[in-house]
Specification:
CATH superfamily of the largest domain: L,D-transpeptidase catalytic domain-like
CATH class of the largest domain: Mainly Beta
Strand order of the largest sheet: 3-2-1-9-4
CATH topology of the largest domain: L,D-transpeptidase catalytic domain-like
Number of helices: 6
InterPro entries: LD-transpeptidase (IPR050979), LD_TPept_cat_dom (IPR005490), PGBD-like_sf (IPR036365), PGBDSf (IPR036366), Transpep_catalytic_dom (IPR038063)
Distance between the termini: 82 Å
Keywords: Cell shape, Cell wall biogenesis/degradation, Peptidoglycan synthesis, Signal, Transferase
Radius of gyration: 27 Å
Number of domains: 2
CATH architecture of the largest domain: Beta Barrel
Pathway: Cell wall biogenesis; peptidoglycan biosynthesis
Helix content: 25-40%
Protein name: Murein L,D-transpeptidase
GO molecular function: peptidoglycan L,D-transpeptidase activity; transferase activity
Order of helices and strands: HHHHHEEEEEEEEHE
Length: about 240
Amino acid sequence: MNGFTLRAGKRAGIAAGLTSLLVPAALVLGAAPAQAASCNVTTGPYQKQVEKFLGRTVDGRQSLGDCQAIQAFQRKHGITPTVGYAGPLTWRTMNTMIQQKAAGTNPNKDRKCPTNRGRIACVDLTRQLSWIQDGSRLKYGPVPVRTGKDGTETRTGLKKIYWRNINHWSTLYNVSMPYSQFFDGGQAFHSTTKSMWNPPGSGGCVNMRSADAKAYWNLLRNGDDVYVYGRKPGT
């Protein structure tokens, strides 16, 4: 074997070594790509309720199909861990949706929000609902809202809108708060891009979908009443 052959063989060996360093191990070994989060096939404490809500066969036994349907719901609303388990938080979210739907077009049926103050924005923390009424006449809503989480609850009681800023920027949270209407210290109605059912909740503000926050902006003014009552589930 001559010197040229030895040098060529040495270069080839070095190149092969570099290749093994640069190419991901998964490609070298033919490994499969990482899979999506696996499903929890354990039957949850709210299995039947969750199955019924999702339109699944109600047998109280977790199946792969049940798990995948629960997982899709959890992903949509930012419920973690997103493993498809029919646990308390998932059912609490679904139950809130059921109560919101049941409110229909008469959210103040129990007259808990004052009807003797003219135009007023009502916020029911228990059902995570808000609407605007004039006396007993419904003007807008009801719409789902996302209120303060445990520790930063939206404060209850009769308030008044005192400051409005259509393009407000929160220096506290470093986020945009479009259509902000402040009614209690730093607490305000404003729009957010998060799901209204995304736990655990806001920093105290009443989060709204963009279209609803815009409608509130157009209907309300400084000095208008806001009444907050009830208790958010989980707080």
